[in-house]
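For the sake of transparency, this paper describes our internal protein records without simplification. The remainder of this section carries one protein's record, kept here as part of the documentation:
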Amino acid sequence: MVSTYSKMSLVKINASISILMKKLLILLFSLFFLYSPSVFAQEDLSMININNLQRLSGSEIISTFSNTTISGYYSKEFVGEDDYRYVEHIYANGDFDSASIDMTASGIWKINGNEICSKATKVSLGFPEKMYTCLSIYTALNKGEYYFYMESLGVYAKSTHITHLID
């Protein structure tokens, strides 16, 4: 026979579990919509004034991006369409891999002064690069948000998330 006390305890435990499950569902629902690209319009990168941002030094670029996976999007002016996202793996040994909706590339990277320079040695579209392309990286100090800048293009890409890889 189950005592009245234990029946009441079971009811309270079930109620607590039900409340916890509701909170978890709300959290998951919120995260889904916060990270959904269709909920928030992407920032117009052509309107970014780099003078209002902090430029990363060479050592800051290494400490921020070495052994990471970064994701973000390219400027509409750069690729000709909205929501053109990319994912890039940047390894401490100087290698990188990147992918977008219609292209993959891999190659090597290095630091030259306060710029990160890369050369795609394998590409799915076009030809491998023979020379390094260098760019500056700026931040507004929002965690994971970095702006990629080339003088000839202006701000052409933004990272929105960085995940550190395990060594």
About this structure: The chain has three helices and nine strands. The first strand starts at residue 54 and ends at 55.
